[in-house]
UniProtKB/TrEMBL annotation:
Keywords: Signal. It comes from Aquamicrobium segne. The keyword Transport does not apply. This is Histidine phosphatase family protein. Pfam families: His_Phos_1 (PF00300). Residues 1-19 form the signal peptide. CDD domains: HP_PGM_like.
Length: 182
Protein backbone atom coordinates (compact mmCIF):
# COMPACT_ATOMS: atom_id res chain seq x y z
CA UNK A 1 0.00 0.00 0.00
CA UNK A 2 2.79 2.41 0.89
CA UNK A 3 4.43 1.72 -2.49
CA UNK A 4 1.23 2.77 -4.32
CA UNK A 5 0.96 5.98 -2.31
CA UNK A 6 4.62 6.78 -3.05
CA UNK A 7 4.13 6.19 -6.80
CA UNK A 8 0.95 8.31 -6.80
CA UNK A 9 2.70 11.18 -5.00
CA UNK A 10 5.66 10.98 -7.39
CA UNK A 11 3.29 11.22 -10.37
CA UNK A 12 1.43 14.17 -8.88
CA UNK A 13 4.64 16.11 -8.28
CA UNK A 14 6.07 15.15 -11.69
CA UNK A 15 3.16 16.68 -13.64
CA UNK A 16 3.92 20.35 -12.91
CA UNK A 17 7.63 19.77 -13.54
CA UNK A 18 7.00 18.27 -16.96
CA UNK A 19 4.62 21.12 -17.83
CA UNK A 20 7.36 23.59 -16.88
CA UNK A 21 9.94 21.58 -18.85
CA UNK A 22 7.71 21.68 -21.95
CA UNK A 23 7.28 25.42 -21.43
CA UNK A 24 11.02 26.06 -21.19
CA UNK A 25 11.65 23.89 -24.24
CA UNK A 26 9.15 25.99 -26.24
CA UNK A 27 10.71 29.22 -24.95
CA UNK A 28 14.23 28.07 -25.90
CA UNK A 29 13.04 27.04 -29.35
CA UNK A 30 11.57 30.46 -30.15
CA UNK A 31 9.07 31.26 -32.87
CA UNK A 32 6.18 31.23 -30.38
CA UNK A 33 3.77 33.60 -28.68
CA UNK A 34 3.84 33.91 -24.89
CA UNK A 35 0.70 34.95 -23.05
CA UNK A 36 2.00 36.31 -19.76
CA UNK A 37 -0.25 37.14 -16.83
CA UNK A 38 0.98 40.23 -14.98
CA UNK A 39 2.97 39.65 -11.77
CA UNK A 40 1.58 39.70 -8.20
CA UNK A 41 -0.59 42.68 -7.33
CA UNK A 42 -1.99 44.26 -4.20
CA UNK A 43 -5.73 44.32 -3.59
CA UNK A 44 -8.66 42.34 -4.97
CA UNK A 45 -10.76 44.93 -6.79
CA UNK A 46 -10.13 48.17 -8.62
CA UNK A 47 -10.61 51.26 -6.42
CA UNK A 48 -13.82 53.27 -6.86
CA UNK A 49 -11.81 56.12 -8.41
CA UNK A 50 -10.23 53.83 -11.06
CA UNK A 51 -8.76 55.65 -14.05
CA UNK A 52 -6.90 53.68 -16.73
CA UNK A 53 -4.58 56.67 -17.27
CA UNK A 54 -3.57 57.02 -13.59
CA UNK A 55 -1.59 54.25 -11.91
CA UNK A 56 -2.34 55.56 -8.42
CA UNK A 57 -6.04 54.71 -8.98
CA UNK A 58 -5.40 51.07 -9.98
CA UNK A 59 -4.35 47.81 -8.39
CA UNK A 60 -0.60 47.77 -8.91
CA UNK A 61 2.28 45.37 -8.52
CA UNK A 62 3.14 44.57 -4.93
CA UNK A 63 6.78 44.44 -3.84
CA UNK A 64 6.51 40.67 -4.29
CA UNK A 65 5.21 41.31 -7.83
CA UNK A 66 8.15 43.57 -8.67
CA UNK A 67 10.54 40.88 -7.41
CA UNK A 68 8.67 38.28 -9.44
CA UNK A 69 8.93 40.43 -12.59
CA UNK A 70 12.70 40.84 -12.07
CA UNK A 71 13.09 37.07 -11.62
CA UNK A 72 10.93 36.42 -14.67
CA UNK A 73 13.09 38.74 -16.78
CA UNK A 74 16.33 37.19 -15.54
CA UNK A 75 15.10 33.69 -16.32
CA UNK A 76 13.84 34.70 -19.77
CA UNK A 77 17.24 36.28 -20.43
CA UNK A 78 19.12 33.19 -19.34
CA UNK A 79 16.91 30.38 -20.64
CA UNK A 80 14.67 31.61 -23.47
CA UNK A 81 15.08 32.66 -27.09
CA UNK A 82 15.42 36.36 -27.76
CA UNK A 83 12.26 38.42 -27.36
CA UNK A 84 11.28 40.11 -30.60
CA UNK A 85 8.43 42.24 -29.28
CA UNK A 86 6.39 42.87 -26.13
CA UNK A 87 2.76 43.98 -26.28
CA UNK A 88 0.88 44.89 -23.12
CA UNK A 89 -2.47 45.76 -21.69
CA UNK A 90 -2.80 49.46 -20.85
CA UNK A 91 -3.21 48.62 -17.13
CA UNK A 92 -0.23 49.73 -15.04
CA UNK A 93 0.29 46.28 -13.50
CA UNK A 94 0.78 44.78 -16.97
CA UNK A 95 2.95 47.65 -18.23
CA UNK A 96 5.11 47.50 -15.08
CA UNK A 97 5.49 43.72 -15.35
CA UNK A 98 6.71 44.15 -18.93
CA UNK A 99 9.03 47.08 -18.14
CA UNK A 100 10.63 45.41 -15.12
CA UNK A 101 10.96 41.98 -16.72
CA UNK A 102 12.12 42.97 -20.18
CA UNK A 103 13.76 46.35 -19.56
CA UNK A 104 11.96 48.35 -22.21
CA UNK A 105 8.70 50.13 -22.87
CA UNK A 106 6.14 47.65 -24.24
CA UNK A 107 3.78 48.56 -27.03
CA UNK A 108 0.22 49.06 -25.75
CA UNK A 109 -2.31 46.76 -27.39
CA UNK A 110 -5.80 47.56 -26.10
CA UNK A 111 -7.20 44.11 -26.94
CA UNK A 112 -5.07 42.85 -24.01
CA UNK A 113 -6.93 45.13 -21.55
CA UNK A 114 -9.35 43.54 -19.09
CA UNK A 115 -12.13 41.87 -21.06
CA UNK A 116 -15.19 43.95 -21.75
CA UNK A 117 -18.48 42.87 -20.23
CA UNK A 118 -20.18 43.65 -23.56
CA UNK A 119 -20.27 40.33 -25.51
CA UNK A 120 -19.57 41.96 -28.89
CA UNK A 121 -16.59 43.96 -27.59
CA UNK A 122 -15.32 40.88 -25.73
CA UNK A 123 -15.46 38.86 -28.95
CA UNK A 124 -13.63 41.63 -30.84
CA UNK A 125 -10.89 41.68 -28.18
CA UNK A 126 -10.45 37.91 -28.42
CA UNK A 127 -10.36 37.98 -32.22
CA UNK A 128 -7.77 40.79 -32.22
CA UNK A 129 -5.48 38.77 -29.94
CA UNK A 130 -6.00 35.60 -31.98
CA UNK A 131 -5.13 37.55 -35.14
CA UNK A 132 -1.84 38.71 -33.58
CA UNK A 133 -1.06 35.09 -32.62
CA UNK A 134 -1.96 33.72 -36.07
CA UNK A 135 0.07 36.39 -37.87
CA UNK A 136 3.25 36.02 -35.81
CA UNK A 137 5.93 34.42 -37.95
CA UNK A 138 9.11 35.43 -36.16
CA UNK A 139 11.87 33.08 -35.11
CA UNK A 140 12.10 34.70 -31.67
CA UNK A 141 9.36 35.28 -29.07
CA UNK A 142 6.36 37.58 -29.02
CA UNK A 143 5.23 38.32 -25.44
CA UNK A 144 1.67 39.49 -24.74
CA UNK A 145 1.22 40.75 -21.15
CA UNK A 146 -2.39 40.59 -20.03
CA UNK A 147 -4.85 39.41 -17.38
CA UNK A 148 -6.31 36.15 -16.06
CA UNK A 149 -9.66 36.39 -17.87
CA UNK A 150 -8.07 37.27 -21.20
CA UNK A 151 -5.72 34.29 -21.11
CA UNK A 152 -8.57 32.01 -19.99
CA UNK A 153 -10.72 33.23 -22.88
CA UNK A 154 -7.98 32.46 -25.43
CA UNK A 155 -6.55 29.23 -24.00
CA UNK A 156 -8.93 27.74 -21.43
CA UNK A 157 -5.99 27.85 -18.99
CA UNK A 158 -6.15 29.71 -15.65
CA UNK A 159 -2.62 31.04 -15.19
CA UNK A 160 -1.21 32.19 -11.88
CA UNK A 161 0.09 35.71 -11.51
CA UNK A 162 3.37 35.91 -13.41
CA UNK A 163 2.76 32.65 -15.29
CA UNK A 164 3.65 32.28 -18.97
CA UNK A 165 1.45 30.24 -21.31
CA UNK A 166 3.24 29.47 -24.58
CA UNK A 167 0.88 29.05 -27.55
CA UNK A 168 0.78 28.36 -31.26
CA UNK A 169 -2.15 28.91 -33.63
CA UNK A 170 -4.39 25.92 -34.24
CA UNK A 171 -7.53 25.99 -36.38
CA UNK A 172 -9.65 28.91 -35.10
CA UNK A 173 -7.90 29.06 -31.72
CA UNK A 174 -4.59 28.17 -30.11
CA UNK A 175 -2.74 25.12 -28.89
CA UNK A 176 -0.95 25.38 -25.54
CA UNK A 177 2.66 24.26 -25.99
CA UNK A 178 3.67 24.66 -22.36
CA UNK A 179 3.50 26.75 -19.23
CA UNK A 180 6.14 28.29 -16.99
CA UNK A 181 5.44 29.47 -13.45
CA UNK A 182 7.84 32.04 -12.02
Amino acid sequence: MLRYVTVLLALLFALPASATDAGWAALREGGHVVLLRHAFISGNTEPANFDIEKCNTQRNLSERGRQQARKLGALFGARAARIEKVLSSRYCRSLDTARIAFGSQPEIFDALNQLSEDPDERSQQKQAVLEIIRNFSGSELLVLVSHLENIQEITGVSPREGEAVIVAPQDEGVRVLGRVVF
